[in-house]
Every structure is written in structure tokens, then in C-alpha cells.
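Lab notes, practical 5.
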Amino acid sequence: MTKEAAGAALLGCLVAWRATAPAPTAIECWEAAEACSQAPEMVHTGLWGSGPDDVWVVGTSTGQRTGTFAHWDGVTWTRSPGAGLPPSWGAWGTGPDDVWAVADRGTVLHHGRGAWNASRSGTIKDGPLLGVWGSRSDDVWAVGAHGLITHWDGLTWSSASGPGAPGGTLVGVWGSGAGDVWAVGKDGRAIRWDGASWIAWPTGVRHHLFDVWGGGPRDVWAVGAGGTILHFDGTAWASSLPSSGRSDVVGDLLWVWGSGAHDVWVVGWGGTILHGDGAAWTAVPSGTSETLNEVWGTGTANVWAVGRAGTILHWDGHRWSALRSAPRE
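Output from the prediction step:
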């Protein structure tokens, strides 16, 4: 999976196309802790909100190698200062004054009282953190390159360890509660927190997995490279294909989110958007060919998708439409 128009996709590093050499994958970029593109474009990679009038988008300006932050107040998008802050890859929070973003160099960013501030995450290694999720304000997990796992207990971030050999980059994290948390990543890796320790779970695939989300402990979805869609029913992971019966027609899938078991969205390479109604997956026109990195919403008629080149799309319950103008200062 690569991340530029030469034939692969993205999610964290943009991969610059080179005709004379194969482009590195996004995971290879993350593990090297370097950008793979110097293209001067803004890439949205993280999305979270507390409601319809409080939505944050975080990302990176790939030319300047700084973080980007934009906020939706229900009427307009406003750019938030990001100078001096590292590129950011994911976001999660509990409310308007408690929003976390994870970033390069093992950095976590927190938004409260109107400003973003950076702090160290307690990780032993210095690679990028790529995913963040929590069950409450004092129980937040972040994962990243080389299998980084760190936990916030309301006072400090502390490094944790997962099962298996080190070096298995983790990209996505989600849980149904404090005692049931999933993380997924490189080579089909999936691990689960049971409240006491992280346990490895076989997925049956070797494709990289980029995100995980569920409607409950017996209804969990994971998506990844090569159009991979997996479902966990409480007992085992199994493959789930789009309605075409072929996974290769949709390219790499980078994010999954739903409002419930019968309303699940998946986004990915080349503007791909799939919708799951609990019985089948259907391709939905996005109106863009830009790769989409993340999808999130507050309900069936208010869903956002963001991605490359500053792309922001909105679903109103009937169709996807692009933001008419870029987020502004």
C-alpha cells in the first residue's frame, strides 16, 4: 500500500511517486519516523467531535512538516494555529475542552481552554503515535510505530507493552469499554485489552490493518490494505467483502466508523466510500478522487470524511458533498 497516485494509498505519510524506484509504504514511512513526500499540501488525517457544532480535524502540512488543526462550529471551519506542533495523525476526546491528538516523535497534543498544547506520551521509543481512543477522560489509549502503546490515567501517560515480537506497528485503536479495547496494524496484527493485559488475536490476513471500530464487543470491524474488511463476532475474525464479491475493486481502506450496526461507513484510497447496512457493503459516490483518511459522524444524517489535499466531505443523509471552501484562518 502506498500513498500517492502511483498505485497505492496512504494514511499517514504521503508517498511521493518515483518512476525509478518503488515507493515505500505508509507503515515503512512511519517506522522510519520520516515523511515520504515533500509535496506542499495539507492532509487531514484525524477527525473527532463532541457534537454537530463541535468538530475537529487534525493533520499535517507535508511541505512544512507541521501539524494542522481546523474546527467546525456548526457554521464554518476555522484554522487553529499549529506552528511548532508536529504532524498529527488521529484525534479523540470527551468534550469541547478535552480533545487529544497523537503526533510524530511520540507526542500527544491536548486541546483545552482554547489552545493546543504538546506533551510527551511516556513512550520508550520516539516514533509517531498514529491512533487514539478512550473510554473516559482518565482512560485513554494511544498506539503507534514499532508497536508503541501508551496509556493516560488522568494524570500521566505511561508506556505499556503488547504481546508478540516488538516492531509490529499499530495504527488503529477502539474499544467498547475500559475492559475491551482493540488495536490493529502491520501484517494483519490485532491485539485486545481485557482490562489486565494485551492479548494477540489471529485475523487470518497478512494485509496491513489501518483502523478498527465496533458497535459493541460482538460487532467489531477492521479495515486495511487491498480492500480488506474484517468482522469480529465475539468469537473470531472473518472476512467481509463488498457487494461485488471482490475486495480488489476498492483499493486500500483506511478508516471505519458507524452510528450503529446497520449504518457503517468505510473510506479509503481514491475517494472510495463504502456503506454497510448490516447485510451488505455498497459503494457510494464521493465526488472526489482524493484519498480519504478518516470518517466520523454524530448520526445517520451528519457524517464527515476527510483526506488528502485538504479534502472535507459531508453526508447529509442523502449524498456526499464537498466543502465549498478550504478551512480559513
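Observations recorded by the TA: The two ends are 34 Å apart (CA to CA). Residues 34-322 form a domain with the Methylamine Dehydrogenase; Chain H fold (CATH 2.130.10.10).
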